Structures are given as C-alpha cells and as structure tokens.
Amino acid sequence: QVQLVESGGGLVQAGDSLRLSCTASGRTFANYAMGWFRQAPGKEREFVAAINWNGLTTYYADSVKGRFTISRDNVKNTVLLQMNSLKPEDTAVYYCAQRRLHTGMSTRDSPSVYQYWGQGTQVTVSS
C-alpha cells in the first residue's frame, strides 16, 4: 500500500514562511492527485490545497490562496506545500493525502475522497 510521510513543520512567527514536504512510497504515485489538509484543535479537518496528477492544475482554499503554493515532483514522489505570510490561524497539524477519485476536484475538496494519509506535521504560528 501507499505510505506518505510529511516533514517540515515547526514553530514560527506570524509573517514567516515554511515549506512542508510529503514523500510517498508507492508505485503509481504519478497517476493520482494529491492534497494537503489541516486540522486544528476542536475543528474538523479542512482542505488546504490539491494538485492534479500531472501538476498542471491546482486548487486552494480561500483562506490560503495567494499565500500557499502546492507543487509536485513525480520523479521524486514528492508533494510540497510552500507556506508564506503565515498567520496564527494557520496553526494546525498538516496532512498530505492521496486522492482516491480522479474527478470533481475543487477548492473545497472533501477528506472522504482521499484514500491514503500521512501521519501529519505540526505547524505553529505565534502572533
């Protein structure tokens, strides 16, 4: 099965930047869309960004659009999330995931259409 491992989280101040990475071990990585989600204490897991199988189409939640950038390298089996101008409300555990379905991607993608998940990496932004 697919294994996903996130890294790059940490403690930063508002306005700083972080780059999260997700490395997959799987033989069909390049055939699937990938996404980033986040979950803060007391809140449901929410969509952050997604990228289609060839990296040519991206989707962003309104809350991060213009600040975050998702990219992928299908040779390295890696998905990146560049996070700039971080805000305290960005504080959460960030998860990468492989999408199960190939249709219906949107800026409000549901966790239910993602099949494999990483363990998460903590991002904390102080004011």
The percent range for helix content is under 10%
- Bin the strand percentage: over 45%
The Rg value, from CA coordinates, equals 13 Å
Total count of strands = 11
DSSP summary: helix tally: 0
Give the structural class: mainly beta
Based on Cα principal axes, name the global outline: globular
The average pLDDT is 95
Instruction: Report the end-to-end length measured between terminal Cα atoms.
Output: 40 Å
Low-confidence parts lasting 5 or more residues at pLDDT below 50?
none
Largest pleated sheet: 7 strands, mixed
Q: H/E series, N to C?
A: EEEEEEEEEEE
Assembly annotation: single chain
Plain-language structure description:
The chain is mostly beta strands and 127 residues long. The termini are far apart. The chain contains no helices and eleven strands. The strands form two sheets. Strands 2, 4, 5, 6, 9, 10 and 11 form a seven-stranded mixed β-sheet that branches. A four-stranded antiparallel β-sheet has the order 1-3-8-7, with no helix packed on it.
